[in-house]
From TrEMBL, chains A, B, C, D:
Its cofactor is FMNH2. This is Chorismate synthase. NCBIfam families: aroC, PRK05382.1. PROSITE patterns: CHORISMATE_SYNTHASE_1 (PS00787), CHORISMATE_SYNTHASE_2 (PS00788), CHORISMATE_SYNTHASE_3 (PS00789). Belongs to the chorismate synthase family. Homotetramer. The gene is aroC. NADP(+) binds at residues 48, 54. Keywords: Amino-acid biosynthesis, Aromatic amino acid biosynthesis, FAD, Flavoprotein, FMN, Lyase, NADP.
């Protein structure tokens, strides 16, 4: 089935394999009149580009984006925007061995089970490079949000056992540390932890947190296309994510009702909340306060230790994975989580336009 | 926008408010030839029916299902199945007060923000009664899964601070304890905790776990309609759920790669896994092992303590909620989580049929 | 697959069989705040009700609509609207014979081929009664259009060889003649033709034309969800329709380019067209002028002459259809074509709201 | 809204403007294991390529296709297939004049009305070059149909007043005449008519007919996603099509029921029909006989005669269109109609797989 499309009104379809000719995305439903150039998108792609720190694969990929359609004289035309990133660093040879066996923690086996065979080069479609299309589209979604006064910010909340302290949160460090942590002290600790992982031929996971300010109350479409439900799908669809939390998330299950309820009060003539355990969403609809979500990301499955597995002949074997792999993918996943959040919000902002008869009449001048 | 539909190939659309004439669901895409009668569905609905334990609202609702279409001579015809449950216990008077203010933790404010007004009786569409349509459809999905040799089982994993022990898991207690816990000792502890909550005019949350056996490897549609992504949306769309975990869930973020990878090995000529940290899903596709997910559910927001909030005139007020409310909704949510899981699986099982050219040719006799 | 849903933003799902308990529709995506009561819908349903003229089946069906959800205190709430029409005149006995053979021109054989068996009573889901859900939803769509200053009008253009003359078009006769023709002279001729058909145990077809005024320029979503493409699907999905024309339709194929082009000119400061061969649609987008379409409807397949066919045992047989059948369905199809047109327009009007960045910013107050 | 996607199971999204960097399509839902190479697609594209006859624009466009993803070692992988055709012959200068006014019969005005501005070069997205994506995807769909024993054949049925005679139908002439007519005598007459049109600075329309053999009975999803409804949308979405007919089409409206019904009979143990007025579709479902449809295509709106229109300043003006334009687009539309038919059929063949419980069980080995 067709499963590579996300969104209904602002709809993206991503395509491309790790070692194919190119990867990219088609954005359908982007409104006309948005200023857009390649540099806008490149800035986002550069945030996920490998080879920038010690903790990311040393592959050098230019990952340069081309706008193939949908933009004319610097503005979107309302027609589909095709964004393409050619693949340039394809050392297929490195991967030939994995054609014959199933790496633990990877999708090799499940792709074979589903499709009968797979493009094994660099993981093919299940590679982290698949996120290029998501991030390129996320850049466009973020520009739309900006026009609507909405700002998104994602960062590494934890790597392995090391969590940032919200007291030490330094906005100016966003995107500046090799760990993605906006807290210099925690970031240094996390780096030490990663060094240890690398020495042990091991890998680490972590948590990405994303906060969104400026979303008006009323966004989300109950009962299935709720804002939190759509965000959960968006975030869980990112490879390696195994849990998604909204607001207080898992900890609500042990809280008492009196603690967990957020009291409303009036502030400057506006309805506000004294706390935000709900993470900005009530009944699947935004309540006007900050939206907060977290993605829990597993450790990179490509570890350099010896592992047990089976090959395509159905034999138990021992393997040693080679190649170029990130000891942790969390820092590079930050912009992916931010992109998926942006894409979800734009789709639901558009979806919400025909919610009320009075708004529709006004829109059409009646 | 239209947000009340779930699924693409096995597609349900739920409708109805807490105190309207009826609630129900239309199932479109149910294959022809499935044996189906009202008793099959009633059995599921009875599992979510209120008034059965001390820890559920004492409202007495018959919640009797009618099959209005799509079934002929005891079998589904392939045409839409409309299931209707008339509302019979509608004490609207109890709710008239809430028309004027916004209950903390409820969707009163966000519905008003979105739609301009709301059916305030019993929470209207944001009531837990909305799940009637989900569960009725879930009953049908479960019958389909059964025909395919797939079994689902959900249960309460924890209430407040009390968690079941997997060592004491008693399958014969499934659905038999007032807490939904299949562990007599933990269930008794949880009951004691709930008594305390009730005395304190407070409420409790908890965790529902769902496990699925028999799903063949290969189900799920990367990269957005992954099995885990679709499950996350399905489960997060249930009111009061604030986090969803797959397999080891949140704990993967602190695990090392060597621990978290599940080694493959051959068992009786089949590929198997030594562990199941992944919860049966790799790269968004089922791997043939047990699927495991958890939903974290917040405490019932309707607590009988005094609460601060605002009214529709924009005034800060104190309120005391009355009416009939569950001190914990976790036990009644078990069948809802199970239903949403079943609905997701059937949709993706159908979606997966045209994945391979050889399978399609065989299906069409070529 | 699920094929009983029409529309994306304003989405209807119809359900029900000719002789089941009830038929109906769920409307999802109806904006909040529209005044709606059962009488609004009943007026539309009464236009398709049988038993009203000599040329419609003498079955007496009350076809009374119930609003089961989505309306509170006389206004839509933004939640799904379930409309139900109970079946009351179910003489199943009349149809028992057709269980064993395939009526020519009907869907008996194709339903069996697809689903393995069928609800044969009155044609089951392939009965003309299926249109009840379409018309009930069409009534709601028409109310929305009215609020936006858009008016739809459909009528019988021809029955068999008798066509109305546009010179004699009498708006006050709309819906007043037994033929659905707003031209007294042609209607009388068509009645004479139908009498002849009935005497010959035969049946007639015809053409329904639908015109829409007040649609703003800019509606339709190229390149696949064009306004004309969506209308074509909507109209062709009505049972018995075998051709759909937009504007000059088939006759464009023999026209010269200079004839067929509609010249633009300025009229009172607005762009207007000197002719309307295009039927109000250019490049799949409304151009602000009158939208014109036609549906070509086949003669009722249930004729009372002897017919050759086969039975389920694979034997050639001769049959004589009994029961209550319309000698022509065109007059009753008028409101169905009008409904499908209304549903398509509302969906695309809503779809068009997020087309331009400036419109979105203004909508969200930025 | 996003309107550039066609299909649900086999889903294509086209992108690109006439004078942008490239045009193309992403195919999502193509099953794994189909043999596919660029030559397969090029063969289809060459059938729509301009510059091949006197009656097509003399622009020379290579229109060479690149497969950017979804194919590995000569077979489809089940992941999205992105096909790109770079634009090489972009004489934008020719079109600069049309930026300021609205050509009659074109989408210039409606695109401006919808989006606020447009890529005016060569018609931008409303150019006939948009069909490149449709045809490239149609080539893939046709390969799938071939594997299932289904063959499609489209041809020019008429140009202006000249229609082919089915008695003189010469299959070996398919695609061999400059008119697309598989009848040498009619083709010569049509050429004479086109010469006359060109001398008069005028243009011609015509009819494309498409027939499909080998579709099993049972394809189509009532009541909205009927086979004929989906075909009608597919065909009407092609620029310049103003009417769609199935089987006898418009002429059913004047036929008598006894004539129009197709009698069933047994032939070699199979159910067959003595006639095929229905065009192979009953109740929206294929009946196993030949599917027949026709598209009525308007004359090219770019005529070289003087025309009245308005400019963007709201002034009445006279224009003389220059540039390179086809005097008739019917011959080049043949492969587009064939492609849209193939795309619709593949989508519905896949959609039909989960129609019956017994088929699903067998598919999953239960």
């Amino acid at each position: 089935m067709a499963g590579n499309t996300f969104g209904t009104y602002f709809r993206i379809t991503t395509w491309g394999e790790s070692h194919g000719k190119a990867l990219g995305v088609v954005i359908d439903g982007c409104p006309a009149g948005l200023s857009l150039c390649e540099a806008d998108i490149q800035a986002f792609l550069d945030r996920r580009k490998p080879g920038q720190t010690r903790y990311a694969t040393p592959r050098k990929e230019a990952d340069e984006v081309n706008i193939l359609s949908g933009v004319f004289e610097g503005r979107t035309t309302g027609t589909p925007i095709c964004l393409m990133v050619p693949n340039t660093s394809q050392r297929s040879g490195d991967y030939s061995e994995i054609a014959s066996y199933y790496r633990p923690g990877h999708a090799d086996y499940t792709f074979d089970a589903k499709y009968g065979f797979r493009d094994y080069r660099g993981g093919g479609r299940s590679s982290g490079r698949e996120t290029i299309g998501r991030v390129a589209a996320g850049a466009v979604a973020s520009l739309i949000l900006k026009e609507l006064g909405i700002s998104i910010c994602a960062y590494t909340k934890s790597i392995g056992p090391v969590s940032i302290s919200m007291d030490r949160f330094q906005p100016e460090l966003l995107g500046q540390t090799p760990t993605g942590m906006p807290d210099a002290e925690s970031s240094a600790q996390a780096e030490a932890y990663l060094e240890e992982c690398m020495q042990n031929h091991n890998s680490a996971g972590g948590v990405v947190e994303c906060v969104v300010d400026g979303v008006p109350a009323g966004i989300g479409e109950p009962v299935f296309d709720k804002l939190d439900a759509c965000l959960a799908k968006a975030i869980m669809s990112v490879g390696a994510v195994k849990a998604v939390e909204i607001g207080d998330g898992c900890s609500v299950s042990t809280a008492a009702g009196t603690e967990n309820n957020d009291a409303f009060y009036m502030e400057n003539g506006q309805i506000a909340k004294k706390t935000n355990h709900a993470g900005g969403i009530l009944g699947g609809i935004s309540d006007g306060s900050r939206i907060v979500l977290r993605a829990h990301i597993k450790p990179t499955p490509s570890v350099f230790s010896e592992q047990e597995t089976v090959n395509k002949n159905g034999e138990d074997i021992l393997i040693h994975i080679k190649g170029r792999h990130d000891p942790v993918i969390v820092p590079r996943a930050v912009v992916v989580v931010e992109s998926m959040t942006a894409l979800t919000l734009v789709d639901l902002l558009f979806a919400g336009m025909p919610s009320r008869m009075d708004g529709i009449k006004k829109f059409y001048g009646k």
